[in-house]
Amino acid sequence: MSGGVFRIGVTALNAAQAGLITTGHNISNAGTTGYNRQRVDTSPQLPELNGGGFFGRGVSVDNVRRIYSEVLDRQTQVATSQASFYGTYSAQISQINNLVADPASGLSPALQDFFSAVQDVAASPGTTTSRQALISQTGALVSRFGALDRRMQDLRSSLNREIAGSVEGINTIATQIAQLNGRIATLQGSSPNAPNDLLDQRDQLVMDLNRIVSAQVIRQADGVYNVTIGSGQPLVVGESTLRLTTVANRDDPSRLDVGYQFTGTPTAIDDALLNGGSLGALLSFRTQSLDATQNALGRVAVALGQNFNAQHRLGQDLNGAAGGDFFSVPVPAVTPRSGTTAGVTAVVSNVSALTASDYRLAFDGTSYSVSRLSDNTVSGPFGSLPQTIDGISFTLASGTPAAGDSWLVQPTRFGARDLALLVSDTALVAAAAPVRSLAPTTNLGSATIGSPVVDASTQPPLNPALRNTVTITFNSPPSTFNVVDTTAATTLATNVAYAPGMTISFNGWSTTLAGNPEATDTLTVQSNTGGRTDNRNALLLAGLQSSNRLDNGSSSYQSAYSAMVSDIGSKAREAQVTGKAQTSILRETQAAQQSLSGVNLDEEAANLIRFQQAYQAASKMISVASRLFDSILELG
Amino acid sequence: MSIRVSTSNFFDRGVASITERQSALLDIQQQVATGRRVSRPSDDPIAAGRILDLSQAQSINKQYVTNSDSAKSSLGLAEQSLQSVVASLQNVRATIVAAGNPTLGDSGRATLSRELAGMYQEILGLANATDEQGNHLFSGFRGSAIPFSESSPGNVQYAGDQGQRLLQISASRFIPVSDAGSEIFQRIRTGNGDFAALAGAANGGTGRIGIGAVIDPAAWNATGNPSNFTLRFDVSSSTVPATTTYDIVDNVSGNSLLTGAAASLTGPYLRTFTPGSALNLTSQGAEPPFNYGANVVIEASPADGDTFTLAQSPNQSMFSTINNLINALRTTTSTAAQSARLSNDLTAAAANIDQAINRVLDVQTAVGARQKEVESTQNTSRDIAVQYEATVSGLRDLDYAKAISDLNLQNTLLEAAQKSFVRVQGLSLFDVL
Q1: CA-CA distance, B81 to A528, in Å (whole number)?
Q2: DSSP-based three-state secondary structure for A380
Q3: Is there a contact between A119 and B168 (Cβ–Cβ < 8 Å)?
Q4: Is the pLDDT reported for residue A2 higher than 70?
Q5: Between the N and C ends of chain A, which has fewer C-beta atoms within 10 Å?
Q6: Do A591 and B43 touch (CB under 8 A)?
């Protein structure tokens, strides 16, 4: 009898000890990240039938079990991945966000100072000081474009480094998970109970992985985790891992993509497949925000440069020569995919249609197609080049394209970086117009001729006869007139019916006639020789500031830039707001998970007392059994 | 049932809520410190874009104000020069009146001619005026060229062009800030502005012709008006007293208007001349019908064969006009015929100078009107600048009252979060074990 009491006492003592050990383990790991509290499962031992009935045989310790919910853990993983995504996105975009609207370092003040300088040239076209000021302000504008671009280029380089770091992190975690898979499989194979702490460690690694990239776990029957990342790319299979690596983008080698390192050449994984987590944020920040912003800034630079050059070439400089290019405007960058041998050139033929997107020109063996990468709109197929899409003309320059050839065309990516000032001599600022009009004072009538305007829709290149002297002579009666190019000695028109206010256009200029002419009166358009204080072209150049030359005539340079700033602001704000929401979701899921699995020290304190008392009770039982045994001995 | 809370989560949540409050407090503190509600685009993306657009509008508007100042300065200089030109021309006009005094001898007129030569140089100097940068005011686009230079006495060449410089003073207004010298000093109609009445150089009589007038502009301007006539006189001494008759010849066709046939060089003619009465270019009596709507008065007695021409006014520079006047005053005048010629020259010169004064006054009025326009446009631009400032401020600047109250609220919330955290963390069952 006393043997049974002893035995029961010992089982109780063991159970209480197990409880104390586990409570102690819980208390020690209360601060350990990823730790799930553990409980000792006990059950009554099989009773024994002994005459009068079934007598209990005490308690048995069945298992040490971690309090864990796979569902809650999964929810926390997803929330972690999302919160990490928006946190990283927000941190990245805030760098551009702070940069673009800064009153001192943004583009707007430089752009405004530049146009003010053009206006000052219009106000005093004949002075060197105003012209010098324009050249200085243009230098400031060009370097502002460059500085903004450099900042974004820095971000691009640091993105490459961070992507490489993320890939390294993913590989390390993957290796650790694979190792744990092995150890857990071994341990579980030899024992019916689970190695709780190793399971915790592995779950924590999955959580860490989710912080870098969205990862899913497929739990195998033997407890092994197979892990996939993004939208289903396998990373860990049993005890082996597929190593990730960075690989240069095949269209743009300066850009690192994430790839699989199989034997031989690594294969790139599409950015879109790697969503969630900080790596997902880096990749989508690069395509959605950084590329778009750098292109949008470059587009303003290219548009301003081209428009200004076009108008400048219609003017006349202080030396009396036709205006040259004021800016050096970068042409679209064309990068052939490796293996493509045929050469393609692209030029911006219509600034107004230009977008901030990159393009991919592809050849499938018979025809070409052009995809706009910002929204994947495909134009084509075209049987041949050249073709003009969105104001960009694509031309085959050399070689014969083969099927599968492809070229990345970036019309605006380097616009801000490569815009440069060409004019350094103040005399070369073309503030004047190349032609002027004259109504001789010998005319008896009152006919007047307006200042001739150089027709910008057909020029440049300048009409070679633009500066020729053209004489309009009224016939008798003066209801008609003849037009003669006296320089080339050619008659341009005869017996043109005269109507006051009419517009005439010849040799690339147009002007208006008004008043009442008399027979033989003449009006003349001639080269603007010596027109040092003429400011007509400067006025037209200044007018570019408020004319809508972008987005098919709906945006000015400033409003295009403002739209870019608004866009960044919206994205940054969206990332902040969504990030906040995701953080509170994460907090909720963590609270739910911790509510189940976390250690509560007060609870453990109570457990400590409980198991202490149970231990004391069990000890008492043994002491009672011992005394019972002694009483029997005393009988003898 | 109550929710189980893990101890570390309890800590984390407490710390997180304190961090959140701190970050909100920092945001408001920054807004209060900068005075700006929008300091980064993400604070209000739409407002940030609009602020940039408005900053360009502000900058352009500011440029309009600057351009207006520049226009005012240019116009002011031109206005001053023109005023001096008018004053000089009025002196010339007064000298003409003085030269008409019949008691004045050749030497007296020579003195006046020297005075006129001085005025001539003065006007030439004013026509070549420069601005503060050394560019000529009245040379059109050729600011560095001296506009008027005298190759020989009275022969002034214009080296400028007819360009007119404009400045932008508002979104839609380009105001002219310069006037070409040719338009001010050269494009001046002679005579009465419609036609010039001149005595023939070989006239031997004492006939003095007035400047004439167009009384019916519609008839004068009608197509078919040759605008070039000769009045030819015949004095028939076969009667006593002698009868003076005249013919009106259309110089374009060579026909006499009075007969409709080819004009004859010898009289008598169909119309009888009465000194001091108007000679009308309108048919009367049995003459073939014609009506050119003009007349001219001839005083005293033209001699037989004397002619007077009425021809459409050409343009003549004021320098030529003054030079002609100087030459007329230097010519010896002793006979009655010479006196009549001098008188005719003075009348023509007076008419031409009046035209010149009117021309300069016209330009001066236009310049004055532009000055006023610049002034009022500049005021508008300044008003607009205030508007822009208010709009930008509304978009960008902070509502301090609200911000300060938010700041206090966040402060209180943070304090509450900190204190409650400390209080709650102080409780542990281990303390009482």
Answers
A1: 26
A2: strand
A3: yes
A4: no
A5: C
A6: no
> CA B49 to CA A288: how far, in whole Å?
19
Cβ contacts of A424 within 8 Å, gap of 6 or more:
A135
Distance CA B358, CA B363 (A): 9
Q: Tens digit of pLDDT for each residue in B223-259?
A: 888 889 999 999 888 877 888 999 999 998 889 888 8
Q: For residue A123, give both structure tokens.
A: 């106000």
Three-state SS letters, A451-478: CCEECCCCCCCCCCCCCCCEEEEECCCC
* Residue B128 per-residue DSSP state: T
Interface test with A, best of B56, B156, B157, B184 (most A CBs within 10 A): B56
Q: Write the DSSP symbol of residue A420.
A: E
A90, closest residue in chain B (CA to CA): B42
User: Which among A130, A426, A438, A562 is the top mutation candidate for probing chain B, defined by the most B β-carbons within 10 Å of its own β-carbon?
Assistant: A562
Residues of chain B positioned with their CB less than 8 A from the CB of A438: 161-162
Which DSSP category does A339 fall into? T
Testing the interface with B: which of A108, A111, A297, A566 to mutate, by most B Cβ within 10 A? Answer: A566
Q: Which residues of B touch A443 (CB under 8 A)?
A: 315
Helix (H) or strand (E) holding A50: strand A48-50
A609 and B433 within 8 Å at the Cβ level: the answer is yes
Q: Which residues contact B293 (CB under 8 A, 6 or more apart)?
A: B214, B215, B216, B217, B218, B219, B220, B281, B282
Please identify which residue in the block is written with the tokens 């000769």. Answer: B230
Q: CB contacts < 8 Å between A and B, how many?
A: 214
Instruction: Using the structure block, give the residue that is written with the tokens 């993004």.
Output: A230
Quick one: which H or E segment has residue B178? Answer: none
Using alpha carbons only, what angle is made at residue A237 by residues A236 and A240, rounded to the nearest 5 degrees? 80
Closest chain A residue to B157, measured at CA: A441
Which chain B residues are closer than 8 Å to A119 by Cβ? 63, 66-67, 168
Give the residue among A406, A407, A412 at the shortest CA–CA distance from A391: A412
CB A20 within 8 A of CB A611: yes
Question: Is the CB of A108 less than 8 angstroms away from the CB of B56?
Answer: yes
What one-character DSSP code corresponds to residue A428? G
Given this model, what pLDDT does residue B85 score?
Answer: 95
Which of chain B's residues have a Cβ under 8 Å away from the Cβ of A112? 55-56, 59-60
Is the reported ipTM for this assembly greater than 0.90? no
Nearest to A16 by CA among A616, A583, A502, A635: A616
pLDDT reported for residue A636: 66
**First-to-last C-alpha distance (Å) of chain B:** 26
Residues 6+ apart with CB under 8 A from B39: B30, B31
- Please compute the mean of the pLDDT values over residues A562-587 and round it to a whole number: 92
Binned at pLDDT 50, 70 and 90, residue A100 comes out as: confident
* Residue B268, phi then psi, degrees to nearest 5: -70, 160
Residues forming a β-bridge with A237 = A240
Residues A161 and A33: their CA atoms lie apart, in Å, by 28
With contacts defined as CB-CB under 8 Å, which chain B residues touch A432?
141
Helix, strand, coil percentages in chain A from 3-state DSSP, rounded to 5: 45, 20, 30
Residue A62 has pLDDT above 70, yes or no: yes
User: Taking all residues of chain A, what is their mean pLDDT, rounded to a whole number?
Assistant: 90
pTM: 0.87
Cβ separation A438–B162 shorter than 8 A:
yes
